[in-house]
Design brief:
Number of strands: 5
Radius of gyration: 19 Å
Distance between the termini: 9 Å
Number of helices: 12
Structural class: alpha/beta
Strand order of the largest sheet: 1-2-3-4-5
CATH superfamily of the largest domain: Alpha/Beta hydrolase fold, catalytic domain
Strand content: 5-15%
CATH class of the largest domain: Alpha Beta
Number of domains: 2
Order of helices and strands: EHHHHHHHHEHEHEEHH
Oligomer: single chain
C-alpha cells in the first residue's frame, strides 16, 4: 500500500520536501493524538507548484490580473464563469458592481472584462481571503483546465505516482481536480481510498471542463471521502453529491479549520474522521 499526497494551488516557491513533511507531520500528529500506530509507509508527493506557477504567469504577462485592471483578453471564459458563480453564491448584487465601476464607466457602458474585474474586487471585500486565495484559484484552475500545455505539464508530474498500487490518494484544492481527471481518463492501479479536501469540483465551470465522460466515481476507487469546512470558499459547494457532482461519495462537511484559513490542508488532515479513515485503509494490509 502506498500513500500519495496531491497538493493544490499557491504552492510555488515552496521546497517540495518541506511541503511533503508538513502534510506528513500534520497527519501523523493526528494519529499520535488518537493513539493510532503509524503504518510502515512513507508518503509521497508529486510537486508541480513551480511548474504551474511559471506557465500560468506566462499566460498572464507575469501577474494575476483579475480584479486589478488589465486588458479585456485577460479574463478567459472559465475565469469569468467562476467569478460570476462565486458572486451568485455570495450574493453580490449588480448595484454593488455598478458602484465599484463608478459613474463614468457606467455612463460609457462597461466592457465585459471591466464588469468581471469589478465583481472580483467586490468579492475581495466580501470574502477576506479571496484576494490571496480566490484569485489564484480562478487563474490556476483556468490554466490547468483550459490550456493543453499546462494540463500536460502538470499531469506528467502527477500521473506516474498513480501507476503502481494499491495507492491511497489524499488530495487538496486544485489537486482534487488533477486527481479526478487522471483517475477518470487513464487506467491506474487500484485506489482503495480517494480523499478530496477543500475541493472545487462542485463548481459548474469546473464540471463543464471535466465532463464528458459523465461525472462519476472512478471505477478503480473503492471509497471516496470528501471533507470540507463550510467556511472554505474554495469548496464552494461543501458536499459533493448527486446534486453537486455525483453519487457514491461520503461527505464530511462539518470540519472546523482555523479561523484564519478555512482552506488549510494542515487543519483538514488533523480532523479525527479524516485521519482515522486514512489510517484504517493504510493499516488493512499490515
Amino acid at each position: 500500500m502506498r500513500l500519495v499526497f496531491v497538493h493544490g494551488m499557491r504552492q510555488e516557491g515552496r521546497p517540495a520536501a518541506a511541503l511533503l513533511r508538513a502534510w506528513r507531520d500534520s497527519l501523523y500528529g493526528a494519529w499520535d493524538r488518537l493513539g493510532l500506530a503509524r503504518p510502515a509507509i512513507e508518503p509521497e508527493m508529486p510537486y508541480y507548484g513551480d511548474t504551474l506557477d511559471q506557465l500560468t504567469r506566462e499566460l498572464h504577462g507575469g501577474s494575476n490580473v483579475i480584479g486589478r485592471g488589465g486588458a479585456g483578453g485577460d479574463v478567459s471564459p472559465v475565469e469569468e464563469a467562476m467569478i460570476r458563480e462565486f458572486a451568485t453564491v455570495y450574493g453580490v448584487e449588480d448595484a454593488e458592481v455598478r458602484a465599484e465601476l463608478g459613474s463614468e464607466v457606467i455612463a460609457k457602458g462597461p466592457a465585459n472584462w471591466e464588469w468581471v474585474q469589478a465583481i472580483g474586487r467586490v468579492l475581495e471585500r466580501r470574502v477576506p481571503l479571496f484576494r490571496t486565495i480566490g484569485i489564484s484559484l480562478v487563474v490556476q484552475v483556468d490554466a490547468y483546465l483550459n490550456r493543453p500545455h499546462v494540463t500536460q505539464a502538470v499531469d506528467e508530474i502527477v500521473a506516474p505516482q498513480f501507476k503502481s498500487g494499491p495507492v491511497v490518494i489524499v488530495s487538496h484544492s486544485l489537486g482534487t481536480i488533477v486527481s479526478y481527471r487522471l483517475l477518470r481518463q487513464t487506467k491506474f492501479a487500484d485506489v482503495p481510498l480517494l480523499v478530496t479536501l477543500g475541493s472545487p469540483l462542485g463548481i459548474n465551470a469546473v464540471k463543464d471542463r471535466i465532463a464528458p465522460p459523465k461525472l462519476a466515481r472512478p471505477v478503480q476507487v473503492g471509497h471516496w471521502l470528501n471533507g470540507s469546512d463550510e467556511r472554505d470558499f474554495v469548496a464552494l459547494y461543501a458536499s459533493l453529491d448527486a446534486k453537486t457532482f455525483c453519487d457514491g461519495i461520503e461527505n464530511v462537511i462539518d470540519i472546523h479549520n482555523s479561523q484564519d484559513d478555512a482552506h488549510s490542508i494542515l487543519d483538514y488532515l488533523k480532523d479525527e474522521r479524516i485521519a482515522r479513515s486514512i489510517h484504517v485503509v493504510l493499516s488493512s494490509e499490515e
